[in-house]
Amino acid sequence: MKILNLFSPISHLDKLLFTRELSVLLKSGVSLGETLESLLQKTKHGALRNILETLLANVENGQSFAHALEHFPKVFDPLYVNLVKLGETSGTLRENLDFLTRQLEASYTLRKKIQGIVLYPMIVFAMALILGALISVFILPRLIKLFDSFNVVLPLSTRALLWIAYFMQAYGVIFFLSIFGLLVLWRFIISLSIIKPYWHRFLLSIPVAGGLLEDIAVAHFCRDMGIMLQSGLPIFEALAVEEKVMSNRAVARLVVTLSQAVARGKTLADELSGKRYAIISPLAIKMIAAGERTGKLGETFIYLENFFEAEADRKIKNLTVLFEPILLLAIGAIVVFLALAILTPIYSLTGSVRR
What we know:
This protein has 2 domains: 3-76, Receptor-associated Protein (Up-down Bundle), CATH 1.20.81.30; 91-355, Receptor-associated Protein (Up-down Bundle), CATH 1.20.81. Helices cover 80% and strands 0% of the residues. The chain is built from 14 helices and no strands. It is elongated.
């Protein structure tokens, strides 16, 4: 096995396509080794080809598919590996790969929706930064010389713009480098395992956006639990896997507490009724209780996944509608400020010349 392969992650879409094609080929009666070889011939280059080469070699050497996947922890998370392992043990590998395909498709769709929200504001913000940098470098230095020659009292907006011009002329490079450095440092800090749960808890408390993040986290939890329970994984093992794969680490801590309560003999519904699980609605708890009584907990979680994803979709649309007027107002305010700062002293000078 190539050591570098351990550190060769692939995109989420590549992982989805790999899982889907793997499932389709296995359903058609092709053996696992032949399936991996077919996928390898189809993949020409990149990290995915390196992974397929290693997987095929390990499977041909007698390793189980799940054990071969464990060599790539950055690509195949515990949920993926455990469902494959369970499928190989119970003879339901094809069905479990279908579950994984559905899980990856839902995750990919949700990720694209979130990117759709962020894309427009990020483009506007990036263009504003570029425009601000161009104004600071090419226009403001000339305005300094122009307005200094005016024998008129400059308005407050112009004086503020001149202060920005002086500051950028003297410290512009240092300012932008400092902003970049702080962003990199902040990104590093919130990625630390000891800080991440507190950061995620803070994000959940943000008005409007926090509610969306809660629905996304709960939908993620319900989808994973439903898939694992339907594939035959015991609830205690499913909770242990979910704690590892939950992206929101604040919610992952709640999963740990929930797992400990289940280990003591409590039902999911009884434990979720506690105040610490406020992100789970009372209606959802009642449905989970009904699923536990009827033995259809996996189906209940899948239904709840659809419910919370629909709620997340609704909030995403509301945020999209909210962002547009806010951005327009912000851009309009900047344009008005620049117009007043630049044109007002020019009109004042013109008026003084006429008199």
